[in-house]
């Protein structure tokens, strides 16, 4: 009996190790792509005057922060390393902020496409470099509201001794009452409901312009439509991440192993995947970005081949 249990524990540890290794590979690949795209953005001044590319760089940076910090938490939890709650609070504030920055930035990019296609004469005025800087501040301000509201409740209800305690860093340590989970979910779903309305409005308006357009304008408009659809798909994945909390709660009450399986799948599909789509949708699909980005890939491949030889 003891042999069977030890074999079961060993196979479980091996399975968990494979899962963590898979996460490391995925995160490493897309962090490298993100870093190359960010370097491409900062090296070419032609991108610095376009709101479209400025917002794209903001989204790449926020996605990279989320991938790095969430991966750090995965490793910490895998090693069963408990840290003090105050340190976990700092990490969580940055993580939750940039988790929200991605969908808010997606919405801003959709609005930029709407202005470019439906209001082309006002695009230079509404999407100037100065307004882009203001837009970045607004994005971070809007994104910080859910995080600050949820953590303010924790700060108001948690005793002072709680911050010095050690625990595995996860969102659950900030939820002291069941209603806090529902409150957090309600705020997030309100945000995403507003974003979905904006997306649907922009898509309908772009479709109207596409029907009236012809020639090159029609091709540009159709490309804008496809971009908005891809943005909607990313937002849908982020929205499902909110609902996944309820499935995890139900699984935790039923079986811990099932809970760990569902949480791992949710992390890959609804946390890592949307952030891996960003460089594919707005980087590698963009002709101008791809034209400048490809030589960097060739240089990296060349230096890697020299190092391996």
Order of strands side by side in the largest beta sheet? 1-2
CATH class bucket: Mainly Alpha
What's the rounded overall pLDDT mean?
A: 77
Number of separate domains: 1
Oligomer kind: single chain
Class from secondary-structure proportions? mainly alpha
Q: What do we call the CATH homologous superfamily?
A: Rhodopsin 7-helix transmembrane proteins
Spatial extent as radius of gyration: 22 Å
CATH architecture: Up-down Bundle
CATH topology: Rhopdopsin 7-helix transmembrane proteins
Biggest beta-sheet profile: 2 strands, antiparallel
What are the segments in which pLDDT stays under 50 over at least 5 consecutive residues? 1-10
Number of strands: 2
Number of helices: 9
Helical residue percent band:
over 70%
What series of H and E elements makes up the topology? Answer: HHEHHHEHHHH
Through-space gap between termini: 52 Å
Organism: Xiphophorus maculatus (Southern platyfish)
Transmembrane segments: 20-42, 54-78, 84-111, 132-156, 186-207, 228-246, 258-277, 289-308
Keywords: Membrane, Transmembrane, Transmembrane helix
InterPro entries: GPCR1_Superfamily_Member (IPR052921), GPCR_Rhodpsn (IPR000276), GPCR_Rhodpsn_7TM (IPR017452)
